[in-house]
Fold this protein.
Amino acid sequence: DAITGLERKIYGRFLHITDMHPDAFYKEGSSIENVCHEGKPKNTKDRAPRFGYATGGCDSPPDLVNYTLEWITENLRDKIDFVIWTGDNVRHDNDRRIPRTEFQILDMNELISGKIQKLFSNPNSENPRDFDVSVVPSIGNNDVFPHNMFALGPTLQTREYHRIWNNLVPQEQQRTFDRSASFATEVIPGKLAVLSINTLYLFKANPLVDNCNSKKQPGYQILLWLGAVLEEFRQRGMKVWLSGHVPPIEKNFAEGCFDKYTLWTHEYRDIIIGGLYGHMNMDHFIPVDGEASWEAIKQSE
Amino acid sequence: QLNTSENQKDDDDDLDMTAHAMAGREAHLMGAKPVGKEAYMNRVRERIYERVHQKIQKAKPLDAEGDDYDAKRKSSKSFDEICEDYSIVSISGSVIPTFNPSLRVWEYNITDLDTQTPTWQSKSWDQFYKTLENIMERDSSDIENEHLDDPEQEFETQRKKKKKRGKKPKEDKTIPRKKPKNLPLGPAYEPQLFSPTRFVQLYADLKRINKKYYSLLEAGKTPDEAAGQAFQYEVEYASDDDPYPMKGLLVKDFVLLASKLATQKKSWNKFMERAFMSTGYTD
């Protein structure tokens, strides 16, 4: 353990959790048609149950999130080495009667971050950075305000996330985090790391992102960061998992960003183990073709 | 002038209204019931898995030197070389009940963990990140100097660039150099320390949980007692389960699965059921 210097048992297991979307306005017994916020249900099928209703279009009741975390405490916490947590920790902006505010978004993120940190921290230590299980969070498109929009740092929002994840972002990365909202954690010191990549800088739906070709683009900057960090891990003989909220597939990434990102994953295949993402709520995988991306880049040039 | 200004205002208002409508629609879609997810998955099958299948069908057979090998028709790459072209983007199910809430536990190889000593660098992380910060800072200063937002300056920059034509263009630092040939393939491609070996997909069957919870309440349990007894995640499936058990989770295992999903209806149906966390969702 890099913090305590003590030996830690490694289990060969880790958890990926994503898109919790807790909704403080969720009301048990309200109408599912009214996004589980209010109204008398039309019938029993329209009644919002305590733990949420699958495919109904409502966000998570706080009970679903709390009981999920409790279940993790009892069943997984002491059997895993680290947690990859890929964002979207607030409700959707799906009710015009109660539009989300920046404060609500940050407050909910702070609340959830506090719960997660408490769950995985070392209860016998006074050091807030001492975790039994390392946690690597990343920012989701619903964790920012306005929805999807996130500017290259330093901004008030990157500073806020640095404050909220203060114990989770390694201290020496404070300044680069303020700029990129991305960081790397050595989950097994000197051997294995997880990169938290702020994929919003590559995301097509972020109005501040056009492409990854101009230096003034956030995507250009995040790729600079990614390249430098990957090379450093290669030099150190370490392996890495990539993680982020928006999956790097053509449908999601801005022009040029998809191909450039794919190239990095392809050319660092000596150290990258894989990439874990959320956002789409569906369990599936996409094989991305590095050689096809080289072709696309050559053609665009 | 007045008319033009009025027209301009109308145009702006129209634009504002359209923008609001679009934002509203998007917000509604983002938080609404799942729509078109089956169609999306079918597109993944047709456009991605099918392409992977086609590519590996053309792989150079192991006995490629033999007379039967039609060099024109087949790719010059072997199956392993084709797998090397790919990396895998794993997209996970969520806790939010778009479908049933889910979590994934990954398992990985730690067999040689104790025998491998970390390679400590002489340069500290502190030093590395300071250097990186400087590089990014310098790049940002370049942007300020470029004055890209000023059309006149932009024109001037372009004119100067044209003058310099013929000079080798600056290296784009956001495009990587090719992997040095002497570096071996990593844990995603060959079994070794940290190679992913298996995953277990957990899910909370909300229909069953809520049903149990309300029947426990009716039976006289307190809400806390009922919730404690009713709420649980269970194993939905593991990566080595039928009908498409994966031997491991290397890139080649995913490539083979993609090919199988492109061609085998039974496996594809199960894959779809799992993609929607066993909710039985269809478009």
